[in-house]
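Escalated from tier 1: IPE holo job.
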Amino acid sequence: MNRARHIAIIMDGNGRWAQQRGMQRIKGHEKGAEVVRHITTFCANHDEVEVLTLYAFSTENWKRPKMEVDFLMRLLDNWLQKELPTYQKERVRFEVIGDISKFSKKLQERINLTRELTKNNTKLTQVLALNYGGRDEIIRACKRAKEANAPIDEANFEAFFDAQIGEVDMLIRTGGEKRISNFLLWRIAYAELFFTDTLWPDFTPEELASLIDEFKKRHRRFGGI
Ligand code: IPE
Ligand code: IPE
Ligand code: MG
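Tier 2 regenerated the structure:
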């Protein structure tokens, strides 16, 4: 049976969710943040899931209006502060991939503090992809390997990535689009892909559970027969 050790999610559809309700896009991001808590708690209490990687802000999302970008940065800061008790209660370790040096000093401090305070939690590693691009991370890994003067092969390359979280088993995208949008390029080589029309603010642990059931039934061949 397939084991859903690492689940990665492209949390898409917040803006459309809000617009469908005649609200500003940022209201969708607020609702989406609540869903992150429910999905994280579900994964922390699931026997198989060890890593949950969530795409929260891409290297391309800076193209959005300043007001939306500023809102997302504030939301992240407040959210990390507010959710600390949940991380501790559910014993979730917080980790980040992406180039956070482009964020404000205050937000970087909040991110590093959350990482530090949760580093001994063992039920789940929740990885937020922040100012993340799959290409960007591969380039960073190449630079680190070069600096270390290390020989590169497929097995040791991951050691130079932003975090050692391993291959993705299930990649889920909500919001109906069928694309990768520069997420985790290296680690999804043999991931099973799932696309749902559900907008992220409407996504539930029940839907995730049914996707995991479908994943269990798939025949992963990894190039074999
Ligand atoms: C995903 O939802 C969240 C982020 C990119 C921060 P969107 O904001 O892309 O929502 P849609 O795709 O416009 O509905
Ligand atoms: C991908 O969603 C990024 C995140 C969910 C953070 P986008 O909404 O930015 O992707 P595109 O523009 O539809 O490809
Ligand atoms: Mg989108």
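The mean pLDDT is 98.
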